[in-house]
Amino acid sequence: MADIKVAILGFGTVGEGVYRTIHSHEEELTAVLGKKVEVAAVLIKNKQKQRNISENILITTDFEEILSLPQLDVVVEAIVGKEPTFTFLKKAISKGCHIITANKEMFAHHGKELLELAKKNNVSVGFEATVAGGIPIIQTIRQLLKINQVRQIQGILNGTSNFILTEMREKKHSFAAALVQAQENGYAEADPTNDVEGFDAFYKTMILSKIAFGIEPNWEEVEREGITSISIDHIEAAEKLGLRFKHIASLNREGSHLVGSVKPALVTKSHPFYHVEGVDNAVCVQTDIVGRISLQGPGAGMFPTASAVIEDLVYVVQNQHSNLKLYHADNDHDLQKIDDAKELWFVHGLKENMINSQITWIDQITEEAIIIQATKQELEQLAAKHESIRFFSILGDYETKNKNKAEALAAL
């Protein structure tokens, strides 16, 4: 019985976590796969750095040395950036290796090509670790897609942003202070742009789109906004209304269109994301048969991500292939466009005398923090006239704190 030979590209947090998990769960992997899993090689950047890796394992800075191994079954990629990782994985597939990646930026750009190449070479691609850390959302959607049609996906997909928003609300920290805390805890990089400006969550959203719908929105049309503009004043005003800020990625079917966004929003106590705090991630999937499924768990860290990679290791060794299928809207009526739909909004910096007759006043807790009902287009027109206005959509059921005033205004 031949062992399963694995190469790990990169030995940072994720790569080391995978290495350690393969050793700590050796018996469990053997029981499931019927073969022993053995790390044969590790690709590193700096040979001078001390690492706790067994002496019988090839440690190299040259990927070609790994490709030349007499037996290589699986390549696990845990590096950052689109290149040279994309090139490495193409070569591994061409050699007949299964591949597993935790690289969301690379896979968002090149996943389709890798999947097509893998199919031609009769190998599998595992990419659970590219989205939501240890939450098995990709495997869950793969199962749902057999019969259920996915209609909507919402997710908190970046643990760093969620941690910062939690720190700002619970400890009354400024954004800058909360970011420093995230960096000190190892949740944020020295350059946190990908996390706090929404790029990380954007890439993950595009990957989820391919899995759930077989297509993705036009990248240029996806609204992407980070959390850097959220102030402690916004958070405290929202909290008085029983609302919490979350950075939420959304994918919605609208007739024959797929609409995506990655931006801050406010959730009510009825929304499943209300209690998702710290570095946790969460994903809600709405389908036509089972309804809503919610998953929550650690979105980052050595072992949550390693868990996703190890589950993918089992998946690819069993040589299962992605069952992506395109969404067809032939039998669906066209849904109302988001810009034309009345929604609830939390608006900061808006005074009642600025509101026109098309906008419905719902609630108010401070002089500048108001909840209104309006279309997105109406709010954008209002914000164009008043630059101080900031507005955020509200998700979940909201009950006004000031029923008497709301009823009086509604009667006018």
UniProtKB/TrEMBL annotation:
GO terms for molecular function: homoserine dehydrogenase activity; NADP binding. Pathway: Amino-acid biosynthesis; L-threonine biosynthesis; L-threonine from L-aspartate: step 3/5; Amino-acid biosynthesis; L-methionine biosynthesis via de novo pathway; L-homoserine from L-aspartate: step 3/3. It catalyses: L-homoserine + NADP(+) = L-aspartate 4-semialdehyde + NADPH + H(+). Residues 10-127 form the Aspartate/homoserine dehydrogenase NAD-binding domain. Its EC number is 1.1.1.3. The keyword Amino-acid biosynthesis applies. The keyword Oxidoreductase applies. InterPro entries: Asp/hSer_DH_NAD-bd, HDH, HDH_cat, HDH_CS, NAD(P)-bd_dom_sf. Residues 136-314 form the Homoserine dehydrogenase catalytic domain. Keywords: Amino-acid biosynthesis, Methionine biosynthesis, NADP, Oxidoreductase, Sodium, Threonine biosynthesis. Transmembrane segments: none annotated. The active site is at K204 (proton donor). It holds the Pfam family Homoserine_dh. GO terms for biological process: methionine biosynthetic process; threonine biosynthetic process. NADPH binds at K104. L-homoserine binds at E189. Gene3D superfamilies: Dihydrodipicolinate Reductase, domain 2 (3.30.360.10), NAD(P)-binding Rossmann-like Domain (3.40.50.720). NCBIfam families: PRK06349.1 (NF004976). Belongs to the homoserine dehydrogenase family. This is Homoserine dehydrogenase.
